[in-house]
Design a protein that fits this description.
By secondary structure, the protein is mostly helical. The chain has one domain: Amino acid/polyamine transporter I. The chain is 76% helix and 0% strand. The chain contains 21 helices and no strands. Helix 6 packs parallel to helix 17. The longest helix has 36 residues. About 2% of the residues have low confidence.
């Protein structure tokens, strides 16, 4: 997904930027690097982290459900979703890069009436999701260490808070990149499952369409857990953080983006989304080859899947699933609480940013701490984590479509992006995705009523 149709301005002159704008050392480092593998590694940043955080424990649970209940019949969905999520996340990255503001900051300026309801739903959904993910991390640790899961909930929560509050943006980005590697455990788990290659290829290349409420429900769930509102806010804000981290602290220094900056943001986003969908694909494959074949279809969470795998695929597969679950959770919870903090802070005009000290952005960090602590408390209040995830999915599903409409309007507004508005290909895929997510929201409501 590259070329002149992605951005109308690719063939035109570079947009004007402030002459006092600090140079980007990353750009120089990428251009100077001769080794293509190392050069690609230097490109990776917000896009990779966003893609990896998409495979959070709740998402992993959804993929495991899809494989356990329908075998390989939903593998094709991961292929279809890849261009959709890539287009949406690149648009969000571009909004952050060109405007110099996070998504909520842009919407506050151009669509303020619709922003507050979206941000309110975002913080409630993210907090519920974070709580369920904290519980999942503790449960996954329990699979490795025979100590009650509840013992790990507070230490895990405090570690995540400390990482965000006391760590620099560079440290956090580095930790997140390494945590992303834990998700590769799912590829290994799939190999231990010894899947039937012919059936895998059929499930991958031939779309299965069923008018069964449960099947439609899992398709809607896959869309909702993959194309989630918190990712829109996170990616745009992280592009801004990258700019601030290289000295572009004033808005005038961040406004405008070179063709080179947009190009490596696109490659970073593609890499992150491919990574995300590869992990999703192999989770479905692993559980489809084992749990579905064994008739163990009653899977409600990722930890259920890990426990059910042990007698079927062996301790190694269950161990790999647990390791991937821990890494995914520790990566995803800060993204969930952080994106909520970005949304709230930008909506009210508060200073925000993981590269800012807590004393300089108190409200931003207060939202992070509060969301994490409330999420932690959910695990002690007797609230069913599956119920919390369902409510989170409903809220995300309801706001994803309308929010994408706003994203598409903003990304085609020359007052916001100037020459960097969407090209033809990006618009086509973006609007198709928006339509699909609006239909998915209707499908979500319908399946809940029918279920």
């Amino acid at each position: 997904m590259s070329g002149r149709h992605l951005n109308q301005s690719t063939a035109s002159a570079e947009p004007r930027v402030d002459p006092s704008r600090p140079p980007d050392p990353k750009e120089r480092a990428i251009q100077a690097e001769k080794n293509p593998v190392k050069r690609f590694g230097k490109i990776l940043g917000p896009g990779l982290i966003t893609g990896a955080s998409d495979d959070d424990p709740s998402g992993i649970g959804t993929y495991a459900q899809a494989g356990a209940q329908f075998g390989f019949a939903t593998l094709w969905v991961t292929i279809v979703m890849l261009p959709m999520m890539t287009a949406v996340q690149y648009i969000c990255a571009k909004i952050g890069l060109v405007s110099g503001k996070g998504l909520a900051g842009v919407l506050r300026e151009h669509h303020p009436r619709l922003l507050l309801p979206a941000v309110l739903a975002l913080i409630v959904a993210n907090t519920l999701n974070a709580g369920a993910d904290i519980g999942a991390i503790a449960a996954a640790i329990n699979l490795l260490v025979p100590i009650p899961a509840v013992v790990f909930i507070v230490p895990v929560s405090l570690f995540i808070i400390a990482l965000q509050v006391f760590g620099s943006y560079h440290l956090i980005e580095t930790v997140f990149k390494w945590l992303a590697l834990a998700l590769l455990a799912y590829l290994a788990a799939a190999l231990f499952a010894r899947p039937d290659i012919v059936h895998v290829l059929m499930g991958t290349l031939i779309p299965t369409i069923r008018f069964d409420p449960k099947y439609i429900g899992i398709l809607v769930a896959l869309l909702g857990t993959t194309i989630s509102p918190y990712l829109f806010f996170w990616q745009a804000s992280q592009e801004v953080e990258e700019q601030i981290s290289i000295g572009r602290r004033h808005l005038r220094h961040r406004q405008g983006a070179s063709t080179f900056e947009l190009k490596y943001a696109l490659w970073d986003t593609i890499a992150g989304m491919v990574f995300s969908e590869v992990v999703a694909y192999f989770i479905i494959l692993a559980t489809g080859a084992t749990l579905f074949v064994a008739g163990k279809t009653n899977i409600t969470s990722a930890t259920d899947a890990a426990e059910a795998l042990r007698p079927i695929a062996g301790d190694a597969a269950a161990l790999l699933l647990a390791i991937g679950l821990i890494g995914a959770g520790v990566l995803a919870v800060p993204v969930l609480t952080g994106s909520a903090a970005y949304g709230v802070s930008e909506a009210f005009g508060w200073k925000s940013g993981l590269d800012s000290k807590p004393g300089r952005a108190p409200q931003f960090y207060a939202v992070i701490v509060a969301a994490t602590l409330v999420g932690m408390a959910i695990n002690f209040l007797g609230i069913n984590p599956i119920t919390a995830l369902v409510l989170s999915a409903v809220l995300n599903g309801l706001i994803a479509g309308p929010l994408l409409i706003l994203v598409m309007l903003v990304s085609n507004d020359r007052k916001v992006l100037g020459e960097r508005t969407n090209g033809r290909v990006l618009n086509v895929i973006g609007w198709i995705t928006t339509g699909v997510m609006c239909i998915a929201a209707i499908g979500l409501i319908a399946t809940m009523l029918l279920g």
